[in-house]
Amino acid sequence: MMLRNPGMLALLQDHAGRFGDELAHVLPDRDITYRRLWSRIERGSARLYGEWHVRAGDVVAYVGRGHPDAIVLYFALLRIGAALLPLEAMSVAHANKILAEYQPTLVIKDHTDADQFASDHRVHQLHELLASWSHHAPVLIDGAVSARALWLPDTQLDFHAHSLDQLCDGLSAVSRKTFIDQKIFTADVLREIVLPSLRDHRLMQFAATDPVSDTGS
Fold this sequence. Notes:
alpha/beta; Rossmann fold; four-stranded parallel sheet; 7 helices; disordered C terminus
């Protein structure tokens, strides 16, 4: 089944209205329904654009171990035309080497001490993305987003750009499993679990489900 990138964003918004009470995933202190998932994506876009000054064409790095809110980060970046560089489950030294090479606009981390990053990178914690409402109005990218929307590593840990179009082509008819352990952003996990589950408004389970401070919905 093929699904184009504007279709996935529109589909998630539609799920919020039609299947809003169905669970997308569960955190220790709250259930994340499809209505809440879309609300968090909107909130993330507002904060990235209005408070953290991320613009279309920018690259934002995520350093962590597969927290489900990294999916919110990815779709929030897609809405404003920015790209995600996921650095998951790797040493700080290796992450710093890649950060030095790609020079992202912003680094967002969940499990890694911010003080261990090179001092020339702006760093925010993932929970800050969703900690409160952001009332800014982001400039949204209408239609096709950048082909460089997601940088994925290959087996040699060289990074290559992928569009959501590419990832959505030929998705499984159903997700083959629902459990995600440590890494979200690999082509296999995205194509076999994340994107089919989101398409079909199914529940996903994550190994990394540390409580995230969240005063909003």
